[in-house]
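As a warm-up, study this chain.
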Amino acid sequence: MENLLSQISEILSKTVLTLDEEVKVEQIVRLVGFVAVWLFGIAVFRRWFRRVFSKLKIADNLKNRIIAILFLITLILGISFAFKFSEINIDIFDKVFRYDLVKLFKSTTDSTEPTVDDPTDTPKPDLEEPTLTLANIFYAFAIIFGMFVLSKYTQWLLQNQVLQAFQIERHTQFIILRLIHFVMITIGVLISLRTIGMNFTSFAIIFGGLSIGIGFGLQNTVANLISGFILIFERPIKIGDLVEIMDVNIFGRVSSINLRSTVIMALDEKEIIVPNSNLITEPVHNLTHYNNRFRVRIPVGVSYDSDVIIVKNALLEAAAEHEEVIKEPTHEMENVTAPFVRFTSFGESSLDFELFVWIPDSFMRFDVASDLHFMVWDKLNKYNIRIPFPQRDVHFYPKQDNSSN
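Now compare it with the structure written out below.
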């Protein structure tokens, strides 16, 4: 038993790492054990906080965010306490995080070569060279993340407290908020690049060399980006517009316009992501570019023995009974007329009519068209007007038998 204890103590006293100070196995065991106990305690308190938040009737999204923040804070505190408990010097990690990574790529022979003093040389001022460290990289990402969060909060504040109070239209609000977002993210990126010691001259040279490859390899992406700026500033399509892309059979309302793609909310509440270049190069029907009105067309075919005047009156009665149909247009409604009927053609088996009505909301065109079909059917049955089936006359001619001749 004594031999076993002596072997265990010998193992625990062995040195694992030697940086500024020796780190023994015993310290590593104490560190891991403390972290394990701390994580178990975090799990217990997490369940307790969930019960408390449930009793307080806090929303699930807010509850999960608060618990996640508390978990990160307690985890960081636990790790710091674990290093204190295991008596491991944290200055080692500070030196690792502040080590200049540029030295890894420098040649060691540059500093060892002897130099000859030239009396004609003028002393150069000592310039502080930028350093690239893990700490600077972490600070750079933290700055970008902070600017992103600040941008989101600024957009929310402006949209709810300022832009809505001035009654600015929705698409103009979208452009203003997007510009603010791009400016703040750009500032954050520039500050972060400066933090890690990036030289903007070399940065421009690198992008100049990559521009040719970007032009050939990312043509579609660049085209979508340029199309996104065209959609935002030229405004052929705005937020809330009802659009129909004929070639790909997409119909819905525009919910957001991003740099690379546009999101269209379809009738079945599914979001369709369309590349911006498709909205620029392909024909798009914008049903609400100037106004939301739409003209519904209802084709009807009746039998030849029907009275055309009665048919016309029946169709107009159906239009007059629908609530969404515009009965009496005002002077402000250009090209909007009262419901009317056209006698279009003498068909092969029917007399063809079309009922034209205007509705105030183009998004309701399918529902209004369906209602009018039901109402027209009832009116035709009321006046004993038949809708004929297509008729075809087929003639059979007997084939002559040549053998009988």
